[in-house]
Amino acid sequence: MSTTTLPEVETRPESTETTDDDAPKMFHYVQKNKIAESAVTGSHVVALCGEVFPVTKSPKPGSPVCPDCKRIFEGMPPGGGD
């Protein structure tokens, strides 16, 4: 008996163009416990600034952050919860 490893296959539909038009212009703060659920099911999340959207991308270090979300987050009391 032998085994082989199949190549990794991307299952999301992609455009044949190589533009970043679908890349978010900025990232928002959302409840941590809602991120994975949204990424898996496509359900919408509500950002601190009120914007509603499905999670489709993960921010990379240095990604632009919504100034309204950042201002609201910095004004929140510190806590260890979600």
List keywords for this structure.
alpha+beta, two-stranded antiparallel ribbon, elongated, 82 residues, 23% helix, DUF3039, 7% strand, DUF3039 domain-containing protein
User: Could you tell me the strand content as a percent range?
Assistant: 5-15%
The residue-averaged pLDDT reads: 77
From the spread of the alpha carbons, the general shape counts as elongated
Q: Give the N-terminus to C-terminus distance in angstroms.
A: 48 Å
Order of helices and strands: HEEH
User: Strands of the largest sheet, in order across it?
Assistant: 1-2
Treating each run of at least 4 consecutive H or I residues as one helix, how many helices?
2
> How large, in whole angstroms, is the Cα Rg?
17 Å
Low-confidence stretches: 9-19
Q: What would you call the structural class?
A: alpha+beta
Structure description:
With 82 residues, this protein is of the alpha+beta class. It has a domain at 32-75. The chain is built from 2 helices and 2 strands; from the N terminus they run αββα. Strands 1-2 form a two-stranded antiparallel ribbon. A hairpin with a 5-residue loop joins strand 1 and strand 2. The longest helix has 10 residues, at 32-41. The chain is elongated and about 60 Å long. The termini are far apart.
